[in-house]
Automatic annotation (TrEMBL):
NCBIfam families, A to Z: PRK09134.1
Name the record gives this protein: SDR family oxidoreductase
InterPro entries in the record: NAD(P)-bd_dom_sf (IPR036291), SDR_fam (IPR002347)
UniProt xrefs under SUPFAM superfamilies: NAD(P)-binding Rossmann-fold domains
Amino acid sequence: MPDPGLRPVVLITGAAHRIGRQIACALAEAGWNIAVHYRSSASDAQHTLRLLETFGGRHCLVQADLNDESDTRRLFTDTLDALGRVDAVINNAAVFEYDEATSFSTASLQQHMLPNLVAPLVLAQELHRHVSTTRPKEQAVVVNLLDQKLSNPNPDFLSYTLSKAALKTATTMLAKALAPHVRVVGVSPGLTLPSHLQTDEAFQKTHRMAPLGQASTPTDIARAVHFLLHSPSITGIDLVVDGGQHLVGMDRDFSMMDT
């Protein structure tokens, strides 16, 4: 991390709304400068930027299509150009579309693998190159947003689950490969916000099915990310933040339980 007198910089993918916005606001309040990545949600990203500006510091918007490797690399460069440095990357953006064994296709797997796995790898690579060549005595951090369902897989969302399983494995491999310049950690949320397949009523019902009576909230995830960013001895782990949902095996994905 940088000198305590400097505000560190974090690039957050998919920070225009939902969990990404919550993480961005929490970190801005804690003294970070934020690069808000978005693909097509420009108006939502502008709203996030206005929220961040209330916390002070310097923040920016960076647009990129994470399906495109060159665009993903440009995303990192644009962040450097705008904010001067990058101290952390939070890989929050993800595609979450339904398929299962009988509807699986190559196209579906590729649709998930490029933004959910390849883009996080590329950004970790860029962060390592940046820190190891310009600030070799400092330590940067990659936080990969994973999923509690990896602990108890079910057949729903096959391509999405495969992409997150690969990212979890990559988290371990990168933690070894990029040390000591970059720590790589994972956070696995439980059911945190309603999916596009859920009603609010169904979401509330399944949210209460966690052993603690409530699964994760966006604030819970933001706190976990903040903790890991400021824990210099932690790398290669997956911190499950889900109210205990990973302890309970489910036959279906939570978002499908009311269908």
